[in-house]
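Now for one specimen:
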Amino acid sequence: MSDSTLWWVLAGFTVALELFTGTFYLLMLAVGLAAGALAAHAGLGLAGQLSVAAFVGSAAVVACYAIKKRRPADPSVRAMRSVNLDVGEILQIDEWNVDGTASVKYRGAQWTVIHRPGNPPTPGAYRIAELVGSRLLVDKV
């Protein structure tokens, strides 16, 4: 079996493994393996093929990681109105506890309310931003 065939088989196996795991980084490593196959087709020796595959695969993984880090994170599912119908509802909070929580009656039950960090807890109207466990995270209206 030629070197290029072995590289293509490894690249195909890595793509198949990526399909099972859903890890995008394996796809980037498969790109590196394909670069190794192209280096074998170009007539480079084994050391050159390994170097090309390692460099291209590593560069692809680092580039993918850097792009992923720069992108803003997806909003929390707990804060989506389509998932939780409580998001966006208005609460009236009369008094906050010293630990930064409040207790309010909402939808016929007592709920513990927490405020978003950075906002001072003052009495008044608050909008539910998301559900954190069994607590409501609120923002000042």
About this structure: The radius of gyration is 27 Å.
